[in-house]
Design brief:
Blueprint: E1 4-8, E2 20-27, H1 33-40, E3 46-48, E4 54-55, E5 64-67, E6 72-77, E7 82-88, H2 93-103, E8 105-106, E9 127-128, E10 131-132, E11 137-144, E12 149-154, H3 155-158, E13 175-186, H4 201-211, H5 223-237, E14 245-249, E15 255-257, H6 258-267, E16 273-275, E17 288-291, H7 293-299, E18 306-307, E19 310-312, E20 319-322, H8 328-346, E21 355-356
Parallel strand pairs: 2-5, 3-5, 4-21
Antiparallel strand pairs: 1-2, 6-7, 7-13, 8-13, 9-10, 11-12, 11-13, 14-20, 15-17, 16-17, 18-19, 19-20
Helix pairs in contact: 4-5
The structure holds flavin-adenine dinucleotide.
Length: 357
């Protein structure tokens, strides 16, 4: 096994910031893992997927592993009307969503067009448009690079919460996710209930039907239509990293106690706050509310602000962007200024969503 040296990471992180990996291994087969363990020799590696939830503020001096494990297989259980899908960690997430829809498997449609790999999806329990990975997750196969052993973690083991899981805890830094197992519905057997109540999803679907001349159709909505609507909304609202470097939402929505949320709403009328589902582990401190971080940032006057090539997107206060030649440090500095201001104005701590190196 020969690690690559001084690999340019500009095309391997969606912010497009300049950084090198001093040593990097392309992981294409699980059989490489024992060799990789010997190469690491106790050092903690950096595990890289698609680089779409990552801000690099320096070169990667730690040994890097670029996960490119491919493969998809499935097993249908006609009795329960479900299908178990096992997917290699290096597969594209959106590629998986598209394939599942083509195969008649239902459950991923709301998560269409999220960039990145399948292996990174459990790390922050990816979510969008009223759905999250945890809704369809069954288990994950992990290789412990410190011990050289395999683990299978169940849904419960993963401790999923809002943009959170056990993989964010320090001891999990040496766990390399090799494959993810999902349990999906079969469209041919009813598939399960679609999630249509998030924001303007229903209106978008209706709009698409009208443009296709199907406006008066009473036919039940299909998962493909949900995905089509989600894709249309995302393309309209979110900057394409191929044109404008970004990592999606840069800050998570703060979750706070109900009393505190109501008192903030008294002081700042219009502040959006939503109850957190009681089974969400992020609500473990009793009844909780999720606040819209984008509203706070916009209210503090940061939308569209630019510091050199680092900026806040002009239409989307939650998205930090690289207008061209921003360094990771400049983007981090801008994020810090925003965090400080939100703390000062609202007394709230804004947590950063992507991994900052
Ligand atoms: C335009 C845009 C829109 C986005 N929209 C959303 C959204 O709607 N919802 C959402 O949740 N996220 C969103 N994201 C964030 C991002 O797409 C997801 O977090 C995605 O899962 C990251 O995948 P990745 O392969 O690029 O991970 P990377 O950025 O490569 O890595 C992210 C983290 O996961 C770890 N990791 C990666 N692969 C593995 C592995 N196989 N084993 C162990 N650890 C691993 C890395 O070490 C790192 O800590 C968006 C990003 C962009 C750019």
């Amino acid at each position: 096994m020969k690690p690559l040296r001084n690999v340019d990471l500009r095309t391997l992180n969606t912010f497009g910031v300049a950084a090198l990996a001093l040593q990097l291994v392309e992981l294409e087969h699980e059989e490489q893992l024992p060799d990789i363990c010997r190469w690491l020799d106790g050092r903690t590696p950096f595990i890289l997927g698609g680089g779409s939830n990552l801000l690099l503020t320096r070169d990667l001096t730690e040994p890097a592993i670029h996960v490119r494990l491919l493969g998809r297989r499935y097993q249908i259980d006609i009795d329960s009307g479900a299908v178990q899908v096992v997917v290699g960690a290096g597969e594209s997430w959106h590629g998986l969503v598209t394939w599942c829809l083509e195969m008649g498997f239902q459950g991923l449609e709301n998560l269409a067009l999220i960039p990145g790999t399948v292996g990174a999806a459990p790390i922050q329990n990816i979510g969008a448009y009223g759905a999250e990975l945890a809704d369809v997750f069954e288990s994950v196969r992990v290789f412990d690079l410190a011990q050289g052993t395999w683990l299978t973690l169940s849904h419960q083991d993963c401790q999923f919460g809002y943009r959170d899981s056990i993989f964010k805890q320090a001891h999990a830094a040496r766990w390399l996710i090799c494959s993810v197992t999902l349990r999906l519905g079969l469209q041919s057997h009813g598939g399960g209930r679609l999630k249509l109540d998030y924001g303007d999803l229903r209106a978008e679907i209706q709009g698409i039907r009208e443009r296709k001349g199907l406006g008066s159709s009473t036919q039940a909505i299909r998962p493909q239509e949900v995905a089509e609507a989600v894709i249309a909304i995302r393309i309209r609202r979110l900057p394409d990293p191929a044109r404008l470097g970004n990592a999606g939402s840069f800050f998570s929505n703060p979750i706070i106690g109900v009393e505190e949320a109501l008192s903030l709403q008294m002081r700042f009328p219009g502040l959006p706050a939503y109850p957190v589902a009681p089974n969400d582990s992020s609500s473990q401190h009793g009844r909780a509310m999720k606040l819209a971080a984008a509203w706070l940032i916009e209210r503090a006057g940061w939308k569209g602000v630019r510091r050199g090539d680092a900026g806040v997107h002009r239409d989307h206060a939650l998205v930090l962007v690289n207008h061209g030649a921003a360094s990771g440090q400049q983007i981090r500095q801008l994020a810090q200024e925003i965090q400080d201001e939100i703390q000062r104005l609202f007394g709230l701590t804004l947590a950063i969503e992507p991994r900052v190196v």
